Structures are given as structure tokens and as C-alpha cells.
Amino acid sequence: MGNVLKYEKKIASNPKDLFKTLMQEQLKYFQFYDSKIKQLTEGIKISKPFYTKTTKEKVNGVIEITKIKENEEFQMKTSYSKGEILQTFHIFEEEGAIKICYMEENSFEKKRDRANFSLVSLPYRILFRMQLKKRIKYLEQQTLQREGIC
């Protein structure tokens, strides 16, 4: 469980509009790497280079949409030579409030990479939270603008 990173926030919107914004933003991301993609569905894949968290080396990876549950969940899996990253957005209601939760589960092929992640995960968690806070706030602002609230 040490390889799971999580961020959760209350949102001033409804699940349907928030999910629609999330899907639109993810579509833009996928289209940046493959302009032929017109709609997101489970099984769609893109290839892209990225930097690993553990060694900061540039590697090629494949991002695949593994789950779309309308108004509730969006999940992607990034596969690369050293392992996989499962990224999940979950939208739900709790105690009368709408929340969005982002989870990132990192798994590695080699024991050495798991150990490296343990070392870098403490400082990375701080950066992770800051980046996710900005990303979720952006999603919320885009949703509220679409709803005409701000």
C-alpha cells in the first residue's frame, strides 16, 4: 500500500457536470498525442514519452483508458518498461458533499525500483499534493464556468 498516492477534495458542483469537465480535459490530453481520437472510450491507447519518478530518466510509455463509469469514475493505466501506474478519478457524494478523489498506484517490475520509489516518495508526495490541488481546482473552475456560476 506504500505505492498508493491519494488526494481528495470537496467540490462545489454536481457529479454530472464535474465528470463532463474531466472527460473534456482528458480528451484534450489524449488528442494532444493522437489527433485522430474524437471520443474517449475504454481501451483507447496513446504512446508518449515521460520521466520516471524514481530515476528521472525519459522512457516511452503507453497510456490506456481502462475504466469509464459515467459521472463516477475514470481510470487510466500507464505501462512502461519498469512497471505500471494506475490513475483513478472517482467522483462521489459523502455526507451531503460532492467529492473528487484522485488515486495513483505505482507498481514496479524490479525490487530495486520499488526501493527507489520508497526513497523518492516522501518528497514526491509533497509535489504530488501541490500539483493535484491545482489540477482539481482547475477542474472545479472549468465546471463552474460551464455552469455559469463564476
What do you see in this structure?
- This protein has 150 residues and is of the alpha+beta class.
- Helices cover 37% and strands 39% of the residues.
- Helix 1 packs across helix 2 (111-147).
Number of helices: 2
Shape type = globular
The residue ranges in which pLDDT falls below 50 over 5 or more consecutive positions are none
Largest sheet: 6 strands, antiparallel
Strand % is 35-45%
How many extended strands?
6
Terminal CA distance: 39 Å
Sketch the topology as an H/E string, one letter per element: EHEEEEEH
What is the average per-residue confidence, as pLDDT, rounded to a whole number? 86
Helix content: 25-40%
Q: Taking Cα atoms only, what radius of gyration do you get, to the nearest Å?
A: 16 Å
Instruction: Give the strand line-up of the largest sheet.
Output: 1-6-5-4-3-2
Structural class: alpha+beta
